[in-house]
Amino acid sequence: MVEIILFILFFLLLIITADFVFLILPLLITMYVLTYSDGGIILAGLLGLIIDILSPGSLGIFFFLFIVVALVLRILLNKYVQVSVFQRF
């Protein structure tokens, strides 16, 4: 339920202020993917694809690269590092 609410809020932020979204939202999604469950990876990927389709220019490409980097980091952290910081509280 929390993931759905965050997804809606992030999409509204995208519509309202493109500059804010371009600077802050990729970092928020990256942190979300790194810290929460695998459902977060799915939602972040969907959001990245939606932004990639809807956005003109290079915004979607940069956002999609942030999502890919976050996913790779998440996989590497799960494989090589067993730290409780990256588990959901």
Task: Summarize the structure in words.
It contains 5 helices and no strands. The longest helix is centred in the last third of the chain and has 22 residues, at 59-80. The chain starts with a helix and ends in a 9-residue tail after the last helix. The protein has one domain (7-79). The mean pLDDT is 63. Helix 3 (25-35) runs parallel beside helix 5 (59-80) and helix 4 (38-54) runs antiparallel to helix 5. By secondary structure, the chain is mainly α. The chain has helices spanning 2-16, 18-23, 25-35, 38-54, 59-80.
Q: SSE layout and pairings?
A:
Layout (H helix, E strand, L loop, with lengths): L1 H15 L1 H6 L1 H11 L2 H17 L4 H22 L9
Helix pairs in contact: 1-4, 3-4, 3-5, 4-5
Give a nutshell description of this structure.
With 89 residues, the protein is mainly alpha-helical. The protein has five helices and no strands.
Short key terms for the protein model shown above:
mainly alpha
Supply the helix-strand structural class: mainly alpha
Number of helices: 5
Mean pLDDT: 63
For the terminal residues, how far apart are their CA atoms? 15 Å
The number of distinct β-strands equals: 0
Succession of helices and strands: HHHHH
Categorize the overall geometry. globular
The largest pleated sheet is described as: none
Quickly count the domains: 1
Q: What's the helical proportion of residues?
A: over 70%
Task: List the quaternary state of the chains.
Answer: single chain
Unreliable spans: none
Q: In percent terms, what proportion of residues is strand?
A: under 5%
